[in-house]
Amino acid sequence: MKRTWIKNARIVNEGKIFHGSIVIENEVIAEVLAEETVPSQPCGEIIDAKGYYLMPGVIDDHVHFRDPGLTHKADIHTESTAAAAGGVTSFMDMPNTTPQTTTLEALNAKFADAATKSIVNYSFYFGATNTNADVLPTLDKSRVCGVKLFMGASTGNMLVDRMEVLRKVFANAGMLIAAHCEEQSIISANTTAFKEKYGEDPDIKYHPQIRSAEACAYSSSLAIRLAKENNARLHILHISTAQELDLLEDKPLSEKKITAEACVSHLYFYDKDYETLKGRIKCNPSIKTSEDRNALRKALSTNMIDVIGTDHAPHLLKEKEGGALKAVSGMPMIQFSLVAIMELVREGILSIEQLVQKMCHAPAELYHIERRGYIRPGYQADLVLVNPDHEWTVTADCVLSKCGWTPMEGQKFHTRVEKTFVNGDLVYSDNKVDQSHRGQELRFKR
């Protein structure tokens, strides 16, 4: 029996910070001990975490690992390596791959592939299309994290734009619907107008005006109306505007069926950053104004934003060249999400307890993940140790995503992920990832 004692930590869990330690026994948390209490049985390994925060591993509800079919950009193994280095112990991957994850055959193939490749824990969304709404009731709800609905065209072009199909998706899903909300007719009209004025590929700075705040708010409003009509569970992904916040309720997660995610990119960047970072920060929905960013940041200290994710979406740098229409959308963020939000903690924008709520507890609660997301006896030992006083700068050589770059390059951080545990195993330590480790499928209580 393998027992590990992590002692002298500042444990952040369930709205509290306390000095204590935990005991890992094989895969699970066996004991949570306050102050100087010692384990009930001897431990073969002892880790002194003095001065460090110990928190549950981050659960990222929104990634694009590009596998299968787009593996020149990224794959499950490389991106789960980056996740482990960033303190992310579980991810939920999107269906816009090649082939798209819109059939049971493609879904099962992804699960089988991840079992051989992924260093951390995993699940996969099933993608809704204009033709597969009848398949949704047949999905294994204990295994599939949710249904992904593109109410705006993005990478992979999985747009669902027929009202009768949208109604059927909301009626048939029977599980959480994670929606990308941008109204395509507004985007198309804006695209035509900007091309007439500025040519075939307008400057990247016009991206937030083409994929506008109006397009986001209109689509999010429609999604909310359809969810209410069908008593469905709706999770609006990557909220990017102050307008959308007005559509949300400031209530505890347990009291609502319509929830929202903010992504690190929209919390960190704003439209002035296009001047220096150009296509590197092009994403859908677009990076918008400083007022939008500040409104999102302010909402982090409320219950309007429930989850912080990444929308981790690698591309090669050569694919990011061009303007508002030709540069592809998406950026790699998963390795730096936890330390980036720790910077917002340092600035007083949210507390570290709120960080843990929105990056660890809330994803587990929202998706009904079994025995993860909290530091509790009997839960899987998915944990991260964070040094709150280590200044460092992101350089290209530390990027572990296959694409080899990040818009965070040159960014100075003041905290560092020291160790990451997945199912009780130490998978990241001393700047090294255990490449032999394999995570587990997430399971869901339905």
From TrEMBL:
Cofactor requirement: Zn(2+)
Keyword Hydrolase found: yes
Any Pfam family: Amidohydro_1
EC assignment: 3.5.2.3
InterPro entries: Amidohydro-rel, DHOase/Allantoinase_Hydrolase, Dihydroorotase_CS, Metal-dep_hydrolase_composite, Metal_Hydrolase
A GO cellular component entry from the record: cytoplasm
Domain of life the protein comes from: Bacteria
GO BP term, pick one: purine nucleobase catabolic process
Any one GO MF annotation of this record: dihydroorotase activity
Domain Amidohydrolase-related: 53-427
UniProt keyword annotations, A-Z: Hydrolase, Metal-binding
Signal sequence extent: none
Function: Catalyzes the reversible cyclization of carbamoyl aspartate to dihydroorotate.
Family classification: Belongs to the metallo-dependent hydrolases superfamily. DHOase family. Class I DHOase subfamily.
This protein's name: Dihydroorotase, multifunctional complex type domain protein
